[in-house]
Specification:
single chain, about 375 residues, 2 domains, two-stranded antiparallel sheet, 14 helices, 11 strands
């Protein structure tokens, strides 16, 4: 079941401009959870705040129209000659494009970081359904999807006839951002991040499209779906080698609901989508590997998977940023870690301009 959406007023152009205050009202009760200092900062003057938009785009890769939230930094409206790097933030299973704003106040965190002296950037938050951000092994039953009256999201934006979700993000969404906004249309100016399923998506998309993304960050990512053991993690890692072992690695419920329709039921399909194998492929080809950062809570069910992925990168001689921190697979943890990934990605996508070596190609957009 997907998270419920809130109604928003749409402009005739198909682009929705939404006031920041209204969106912040959607933030749930914090329930005593620790909120990061950056997210709490309420001293940012209204004139120094960024803007939020809700866009729609036609995705040729999916065959439907999708919706996304876009954060524009404070100077975007007044400095009409400036161009900006773009960060892409992906949601997890059962989430949607509202999550990073509604549940983590990403826009307010960005405002606070920029007010504290960090670089400006555009942030795109797309709707990724429960897709695992990959091209599916099997086509979905679009007719049955359209007949489902219990689902909240309209069939027109959810029932995907051609589930090429990796191309949707790396080609359609990136192309939309470069044409609709004043971006720096260059790989050096694009970073991607996500949580849980979105963490898997961010890492695999960067490794699959190193010509598109220069850096990827993951919070609590599912980074080793085919890892079998030992538990707790210890080297040498054991990877599933048969369909039965794939089911064992994932667990029956997750295997049938999450993975088999998207990854297939054999190791060929799984290994083609396995983060460790994608990194190995780049190393063997001599292709530069994007900068990688990933973290996980010590109470997270995916802690050992993150350790397995780190061990693979270490064995390949790759550098990476990895942290194990207090917390579990919850929004309390993701809210706390959001400023860290934003600051790290901002450093990655702005270092070329800050050292005077150029800012990438120009792009369109108003």
């Amino acid at each position: 079941m997907r998270a419920p959406r809130r109604a928003v007023a749409q402009l005739a152009s198909g682009v929705v401009a939404t006031c920041i205050g209204a969106l912040l009202a959607l933030t749930p009760r914090e329930g005593g959870a620790q909120v990061t200092r950056a997210a709490r900062a309420a001293t940012v003057a209204p004139s120094a705040r960024g803007a939020l938009r809700i866009d729609t785009l036609w995705s040729q890769s999916l065959g439907i129209t999708k919706r996304l939230f876009v954060y524009l930094p404070p100077s975007y409206a007044r400095d009409t000659a400036a161009r900006y790097p773009v960060l892409f933030y992906l949601h997890g299973v059962s989430g949607n494009e509202e999550n990073w704003v509604r549940l983590a106040r990403l826009d307010r965190v960005m405002d606070s970081l920029i007010a504290a002296g960090h670089p400006e950037a555009i942030v795109a938050m797309p709707d990724g359904d429960d897709s695992w951000y990959t091209t599916w092994h099997t086509l979905p039953d679009a007719a049955a999807c359209r007949a489902d009256t219990a689902r909240e999201e309209p069939a027109a934006t959810y029932c995907v006839p051609w589930p090429h979700y990796d191309d949707y993000i790396a080609r359609d969404l990136v192309g939309h951002m470069d044409s609709a906004y004043r971006t720096r249309a260059d790989v050096s100016a694009r970073g991607i991040a996500g949580l849980s399923m979105g963490g898997y998506g961010a890492i695999t998309l960067a490794l699959r499209y190193p010509d598109v993304f220069t850096a990827a960050a993951s919070h609590s990512g599912v980074l080793a779906p085919a890892w079998l053991g030992p538990r707790p993690f210890a080297e040498p890692a054991v990877w599933a080698r048969t369909p039965e072992e794939l089911r064992q690695a994932a667990g029956d419920t997750r295997y049938d609901r999450w993975f088999a329709p998207k990854f297939g039921r054999d190791t060929v399909g799984w290994y083609a989508r396995e983060p460790a194998r994608l990194a190995e492929r780049l190393v063997r080809a001599g292709t530069p590997v994007p900068a990688l950062s990933f973290d996980v809570g010590v109470g997270d069910v995916y802690l050992d998977q993150n350790r397995a992925f780190a061990a693979t990168l270490r064995g390949l001689g790759l550098s990476y940023r990895y942290a194990e921190l207090p917390g579990a697979h919850t929004w309390d943890y993701w809210r706390a870690q959001l400023p860290t990934s934003l600051m790290w990605l901002l450093a990655q996508v702005t270092q070329r301009t800050s050292d005077g070596s150029g800012g990438g190609a120009a792009a369109g957009g108003a």
